[in-house]
Design a protein that fits this description.
Elements (H helix, E strand, L loop, with lengths): L4 H4 L19 E3 L3 E5 L20 E6 L10 H8 L4 E4 L8 E4 L1 H7 L3 H4 L14 H12 L4 E8 L5 E13 L4 E7 L4 H45 L5 H27 L8 E3 L1 H16 L3 E6 L7 E3 L1 H18 L5 E10 L17 E7 L7 H4 L19 H11 L3 E6 L5 E8 L1 H6 L27 E5 L3 H13 L3 E5 L2 H10 L6 E5 L8 H11 L5 E5 L3 H6 L6 E5 L4 H27 L11
Parallel strand pairs: 3-7, 10-12, 16-17, 16-18, 18-19, 19-20
Antiparallel strand pairs: 1-2, 2-3, 4-5, 4-8, 6-7, 7-8, 9-11, 12-13, 13-15, 14-15
Helix pairs in contact: 6-7, 6-13, 7-11, 8-9, 9-11, 14-15
């Protein structure tokens, strides 16, 4: 059935091939020469719109009175050739719907010459990674003679891929016969890359939050397991029982390392950044690296002379470098090959990695590792830093190596860059701010983790002298374990399961507490940091030892005042003993200094005067 006359005015009710036309819509005239169907805000596909939203006035299809392409002397043809918007016309009346016209902007975009384009179907722009479903959508739209807008991955003449925002719509003659298909193009590669980077950042942030939460709970469980194993180790055991206990301890240690890697990926690790000479660190680390990588791997060093110091945690940098080098070794297995390690001073593009990963402008130290392996295809490279993603055989890797490196580098205010392609090997580049740049930005060049801990002899001076320790822990199992450890070390122990209970225990003891040992993350409105501040209001200088599976603020800034140290979970009994003794000794030394200052300088004895 045909449409009402007022809707079909100016357009025949039948197409040129005799098929009934679809019901017509409101049309706009082009000064008697052509007319078209406005978009009217209706979406014609999923592609990006260069007007910033669904079109209203532009035509989705048109009807013309002069179908030929020979008259090219008018201003409109000049406009088509002057515009920077690539455009083509195809001829659906010829076999394979070839290109009949391409403007100069299209030639600029694709790199082809006009005689290489005209007469060919547009599929020559497709390639290996072009989405077949999108191609099918385009073909269906052409077959149904309707407008469509899509984003499609195309390839230039030199093989460079680019994202193409394509709009195409039909062009009819006055007799209703389909004459051409018009198509405009737009290189939207930068927008697509930015969107992909943003989505990846959101995904990784969500994974990081989940990972950190799991690691925190897992650390509490490991604390109980490792602590209980230490208690069992103090008892007389048979050889068989001792071997079983050793196996359990090793497994618990592996679990502890795993959670540390998870927290590093989630950027919840507390770092100890200090001015570090990357060249010197690598040279000192080199002998161990060579034995780790094996005889099949040759290390080629290209270290920049007079490289400035960068602000980085040297221990975590060694771990990150080792992970990258092990990946390089495994990529070249079993034949081996050359791994090139280089350093450089660079000024990276602050926006190159997308809006989510912008860097402060300035100089950065670049540490690069390049292998001669097979390289990674694009779909593998895209997921290379995801936790637990690995292409290695089962049991050969956890998939946390590059994830940990990514988290560490980002937490160090740097950037991780990975370049790889099949047959071209892989280059992993870590960028860290120079110490001078970090100082100019107001970052602390060094953040000590505790007072005098490094000067303690292992196992020396760790026992208590009946000092009173207030232990605050919301996990009953961890609380009981800490009470047992401290009692055995000779301390008097008060316990609480929340900040509120701790304040009550403090009041009940009349404030006679020598040290607060508290978890940071606890239920209720008072965490360990708030509790420590409240107690220090009553007794300034109270020694505080914090413990946590992770904490965002501590990971970034450390304890918020002096005299607070942090002991990560899971901790060993010997670590706890040393940290407690160090905190108490430091408090005693500080109190002694205050008392000496209060008394004033000692007066010389009269007999000593000359």
């Amino acid at each position: 059935m045909s449409a009402p006359a007022d809707q079909t005015e100016g357009r025949p009710p039948f197409s040129g091939d005799g098929e009934p036309m679809a019901p017509a819509v409101d049309r706009t005239a082009g000064r008697g020469q052509s007319e078209g169907v406005p978009a009217r805000g209706e979406a014609d596909g999923s592609a990006f719109s260069p007007t910033g939203g669904p079109g209203v006035l532009h035509w989705q299809e048109s009807t013309i009175t002069e179908p030929g392409l020979d008259n090219r002397g008018g201003v409109f043809f000049a406009a088509i050739e002057m515009t920077r918007m690539p455009m083509v016309l195809t001829d659906p009346n010829k076999p394979d719907n070839p290109i009949a016209f391409a403007n100069r902007a299209f030639l600029d975009l694709t790199g082809y010459a006009e005689d290489e384009v005209v007469g060919r179907n547009c599929r020559f722009l497709q390639g290996a990674q072009t989405d077949r479903d999108t191609v099918r959508e385009l073909r269906e739209a052409v077959a149904e003679k309707r407008a469509i807008s899509v984003d499609i991955l195309n390839y230039k003449r030199d093989g460079t891929p680019f994202w193409n925002g394509v709009f195409t719509g039909p062009v009819y003659g006055k007799d209703g016969r389909l004459l051409y298909f018009f198509a405009s193009q737009l290189d939207i590669t930068r927008r697509r890359t930015s969107e992909q980077s943003f989505r990846q950042a959101q995904k990784m942030e969500s994974i990081g939050q989940l990972t950190a939460g799991l690691a925190h709970d897992f650390n509490n469980l490991l604390q109980v397991v490792e602590g209980s194993l230490e208690v069992v180790a103090d008892e007389p055991l048979s050889d068989k029982q001792r071997r079983a206990l050793d196996n359990a301890m090793r497994s618990a240690d592996r679990g502890s390392r795993l959670t540390k890697q998870l927290l590093a990926f989630a950027r919840k690790t507390r770092l100890e950044p200090k001015p570090t000479n990357v060249n010197a660190l690598f040279v000192e680390f080199g002998e161990m690296l060579e034995s780790t990588l094996g005889s099949g791997v040759e290390l080629d060093l290209n270290l920049r002379q007079r490289l400035p110091h960068c602000l980085v945690d040297p221990t975590h940098l060694e771990m990150a470098l080792l992970n990258v080098l092990i990946n390089a070794r495994d990529a070249m297995a079993p034949g081996g090959g050359t791994v090139t390690v280089s350093t450089a001073l660079v000024r990276p593009d602050a926006h190159a990695a997308g809006a989510h990963d912008r860097m402060a402008p300035g100089e950065y130290v670049a540490l690069s590792v390049r292998d001669a392996g097979p390289g990674m295809p694009a779909h593998v490279l895209e997921r290379a830093t995801e936790p637990f993603f690995t292409t290695k055989e089962v049991g050969k890797g956890t998939g946390l190596g590059l994830a940990m490196v990514q988290g560490f580098v980002q937490q160090s205010r740097g950037r991780l860059e990975i370049d790889s392609a099949p047959g071209k090997g892989t280059t992993v580049r870590m960028l860290f701010p120079t110490a001078a740049q970090a100082a100019a930005a107001g970052e602390a060049p060094d953040r000590p983790s505790g007072a005098g801990v490094g000067a303690l002899r292992p196992g020396g001076g760790q026992h208590g002298a009946a000092e009173t320790i207030l232990v605050v822990e919301d996990s009953d199992d961890v609380l009981e374990l800490a009470r047992g450890h401290l009692s055995k070390l000779g301390y008097t122990v008060l316990t609480a399961r929340s900040g509120e209970e701790a304040l009550a225990a403090w009041d009940a003891a009349g404030g006679r507490v020598d040290l607060l040992f508290t978890d940071i993350v606890m239920p209720g409105g008072m965490n360990g940091l708030v509790l420590a501040e409240k107690l220090r209001e009553q007794r300034p200088g109270l020694p505080v030892l914090l413990t946590t599976g992770y904490n965002d603020e501590l990971a970034a800034n450390g304890p918020r005042s002096p005299g607070m140290d942090v002991l990560g979970k899971p901790y060993r009994r010997s670590e706890l003993a040393d940290r407690l003794r160090a905190a108490l000794n430091q408090a005693a030394a500080r109190d002694g200094a205050v008392e000496a200052a209060r008394r004033g300088p000692r007066q010389p004895h009269p007999a000593a005067e000359g």
